[in-house]
Amino acid sequence: MVAAETRSFRQAADNLNVEQSTVSRRVRDLEDQLGARIFDRSPSGVTLTAAGERFLDGAHAAIERLRGAAVLAKDMGAAERSRVRIGVTTTAIGEEGLNLLRAVAATDRAEIVLEEGERKTQLARLEAGGLDLAIIVDAPRRKRLSSQRLWSEQLVAAFPTGHRVEALRTVTWTDLCVERLLFPDVGAAEVQAIVRRRLGADAALLGRRAGYGSLLALVAMGQGVVIAPAPVRASEAAGVIWRPIRRETLQYFAAWSPRASPPFVQALLKHASQGGFSD
């Protein structure tokens, strides 16, 4: 294309910053591959043959498509760099956590992708590079991961209206040890771990293939009690009363790999410190 524009192998070589012999050899190799002569050579320079003109028309179109593909790939790469994959272990992040993510997303202009999963799975994905950040309950205690405390959530229990605890402002584990405890199959492993620590490894915890909304309907029907992070209280549930569990909280941490820590992570930690989340 440059040789056709300048009508000179020598000028094309100067423009491309290569030897003239390189241009001549590569054009000759191309002609051999095509089985057609692209240029007529003369002491005054080179001119396109009829086949060369046809080939050049197609080459221009191909180059434009290649440039378009390069621009598209560049744009997609920029979008991928601004996408932050955050693993969460519960749907009940709460207002504090949402405010933190909103603040960082607004300043960092990043697209946030939330991916739910159990704590062990999220930590393994962090170490493997499948996540940029995980918001988990309790510090990870893994040598290859860093962590920082973000905020805490009160642990609460849902009882049916008219339950004996309705007159109480808070409940204790003594109040709960005689109850039929219901949990969703996914997203409550950390809460269940706390319950087992408080009530013993043999505590009867009943898993259900349902979310908190459906479980609260069971609570309203007197089928059991649900223990959950405080933000679950926002769920609309008629016939249910909520009571905080005395001196029981979930400690939320940010966990990340120092080897592949995107700017978003540092911005989040800065916001968390400035906003008092980690106090």
Cα(first) to Cα(last) distance is 65 Å
Which value, in Å, is the CA radius of gyration?
A: 32 Å
**Biggest sheet: strands side by side, in what order?**
4-3-5-10-6-9-7-8
Shape: rod-shaped
Largest sheet: 8 strands, mixed
Which stretches are low in confidence, meaning pLDDT under 50 for 5 or more residues running? none
Assembly level? single chain
Helix content: 40-55%
What is CATH's topology name of the largest domain? D-Maltodextrin-Binding Protein, domain 2
Total of DSSP H or I helical runs spanning 4+ residues: 10
Overview in brief:
By secondary structure, this protein is of the alpha/beta class.
How would you explain this protein's 3D organization?
An eight-stranded mixed sheet has the order 4-3-5-10-6-9-7-8, sandwiched between helices. The chain has 279 residues and is an alpha/beta fold. It is built from ten helices and ten strands. Helix 2 packs across helix 3 and helix 5 (94-108) packs across helix 10. Strand 7, helix 8 and strand 8 (205-208) form a beta-alpha-beta unit. The protein has three domains: 2-79, Winged helix-like DNA-binding domain superfamily/Winged helix DNA-binding domain (Arc Repressor Mutant, subunit A), CATH 1.10.10; 81-150 and 252-274, D-Maltodextrin-Binding Protein, domain 2, CATH 3.40.190.10; 152-251, 3-Layer(aba) Sandwich (D-Maltodextrin-Binding Protein, domain 2).
